[in-house]
Amino acid sequence: MKMIAMTLVAAVGLVATSVASAQDALAKSSGCLNCHAVDTKKMGPAFKDVAAKYKGKADAEATLETKISSGKGHPAVKASADDVKSLVKWVLSM
Ligand code: HEC
């Protein structure tokens, strides 16, 4: 029984890690990481600071999606609307 529980914990850990790195790869291939980093300010704010700024705001996801996709108030990006959506979720989860 203990063995099964431990295997489950390990499997869940693996899934969580691979989701994080998939979005990291998407951020890289979409060019976000040319101007952003997770922890430090580059040309754009650190993603962790963005998450802190929008914490508790109900419309954060929609606001950021529009801002990034429309290219108004944010440099134009080549990511698709679906990719932007998933990247915004990732940023806000930090
Ligand atoms: C050419 C450089 C550049 C690229 C590429 C870029 N950003 Fe930004 N980003 C910025 C700058 C500069 C700001 C700060 C100005 C602003 O708030 O719009 C910013 C701000 C942001 C913010 C915070 C906006 C706010 O209202 O606080 C988020 C979230 C964000 N970027 C996400 C992304 C994502 C996701 C991508 C990739 C699809 C991306 N950025 C690509 C330069 C860039």
Secondary-structure blueprint of this entry?
Blueprint: H1 2-29, H2 32-35, H3 47-54, H4 60-70, H5 81-92
Helix pairs in contact: 1-5, 4-5
The structure holds heme C.
Instruction: Specify the oligomeric state.
Output: single chain
How large is the share of residues in beta strands? under 5%
What small molecules does this complex bind?
A: heme C
DSSP helical segment count: 5
The structural class is mainly alpha
Question: How many structurally independent domains?
Answer: 1
- The ordered string of helix (H) and strand (E) elements is HHHHH
Number of strands: 0
Q: Architecture, according to CATH? A: Orthogonal Bundle
C-alpha end-to-end distance: 34 Å
Give the name of the CATH superfamily: Cytochrome c-like domain
Helix content: 55-70%
Which runs of at least 5 residues are low in confidence (pLDDT < 50)?
A: none
Mean model confidence by pLDDT? 90
Characterization of this structure:
The protein has helices at residues 2-29, 32-35, 47-54, 60-70, 81-92. Helix 1 crosses helix 5 (81-92) and helix 4 (60-70) crosses helix 5. It is built from 5 helices and no strands. The mean pLDDT is 90. 67% of the residues lie in helices and 0% in strands. The protein has a single domain (21-92), classed as Cytochrome Bc1 Complex, Chain D, domain 2 (Orthogonal Bundle). By secondary structure, the protein is mainly α. It binds heme C.
